[in-house]
Design goal:
Layout lengths: L8 H4 L1 H5 L1 E7 L3 H7 L10 H4 L4 E7 L2 E7 L7 H7 L4 E7 L5 E7 L2 E7 L2 E6 L7 H6 L16 H13 L5 H5 L3 E4 L5
Antiparallel strand pairs: 1-3, 1-4, 2-3, 2-8, 4-5, 5-6, 6-7
Length: 188
């Protein structure tokens, strides 16, 4: 998996590409992911109906589940990462309209590493360097990111990193055809 595999992302849904949180959860079904977060699926709702309170969708994909929050951030919260990851792993990638960015990787109920994709040299977490080999292979500067010349799109690299460390693949279909829709209002 390389950042080039996610070149489709920016042009696929331009509004989503400007502000989102996408979580990659290994080995869980959409229903299991929603249950871990106490999210009740809204049978009749559309994503647009829930945007003000925090919409989230869940789709089954190769390797697990993709959770998509248009203009959301719940997937970056430690409490959410800890609830999604017992017995498995999860990674989330966040971007907002102010270009704030976040990457979170959790395993077995613990936040292992987190950083801003545009500043991958400033990491924190229980084992902040665990993902270094994958980060380096994907071209992320892991030291002195400020001095690096153009090293690529940090968000596309973060999406590729999330797939690499979870084995869960984001697809256009996961964005366009979610199985479940709910609200994150109680999480944020």
């Amino acid at each position: 998996m390389t950042p080039e595999n996610y070149a489709w992302f920016d042009g696929h849904d331009e509004a989503l590409a400007m502000a989102f949180c996408i979580a990659f959860v290994r080995g869980l079904t959409p229903a299991e992911a929603f249950a871990r977060l106490d999210i009740t699926p809204e049978e009749e709702a559309e994503v647009e109906d829930l945007l003000d309170e925090g919409a989230i969708t869940a789709s089954a994909v190769e390797g697990g589940t993709i959770l998509v929050e248009p203009n959301g951030f719940a997937g970056t919260l430690d409490t959410v990462a800890k609830r999604l990851s017992p017995g498995t792993v999860m990674a989330s990638v966040f971007l907002n309209v102010n270009a704030d960015q976040q990457f979170v990787y959790a395993a077995d109920g613990q936040v292992v590493t987190q950083f801003e994709p545009d500043y991958p040299d400033a990491r924190s977490g229980a084992d902040e360097n665990r993902l270094l080999p994958s980060m380096i292979e994907l071209g992320m500067p892991t030291e002195n990111a400020d001095t690096e010349e153009d090293w690529g799109d940090p968000i596309l690299i973060a999406l590729a990193l999330a797939e690499r460390v979870t084995g869960v693949r984001l697809t256009p279909q996961a964005i366009d055809e979610p199985e479940l829709i709910g609200s994150t209002a109680h999480l944020t």
